[in-house]
Amino acid sequence: MNMLRRLPGFVLLIALASVGVALMLVAWTGWADRFGWPWALVALVLSAAGGFNAFVVVGAFFFAQDYLHWSLPESLALAAVGLLFATPGIMRGITAILTAERLPPRG
User: How many domains, the chain?
Assistant: First the structure.
């Protein structure tokens, strides 16, 4: 019965992870379209090493501007979705909430 109570949280977690993967693909396309794949790879490595995932936020903005030809407010709205995945601590907290685990301590 306990597993059945956790099932909706796991389904939402899988959906959230799918959105994260889609945003990574969008960000890669945005960086590669604007600067080329070598700079996209450099941005990905620096973002992974830095602990703040600016790769997704900036790459999603580039994707909306260059690939979709959206205006500035629409591009910023797409980039704002990437802020959800910006820091690992946010994702740990959301994962803990969705899977009914104890929340990680702050700090």
Answer: 1
Please check whether residue 41 lies inside any domain of the structure: yes
* Burial readout 71-99 (b: 16 or more C-beta within 10 A, e: otherwise): eeeebeebbebbebbbeeeebeeeeeebe
* Category of 93 on φ-ψ map: left (φ > 0), alpha (ψ -120 to 50) or beta: alpha
**34 is a domain residue:** yes
Say if 1 falls within a structural domain. no
pLDDT in tens, 76-98: 998 888 887 777 677 777 777 77
Put simply, whether the predicted model's pTM sits higher than 0.90 gets the answer no
Is the alpha carbon torsion for 45, 96, 21, 58 positive or negative?
negative
Q: Name the more confident of 52 and 74.
A: 74
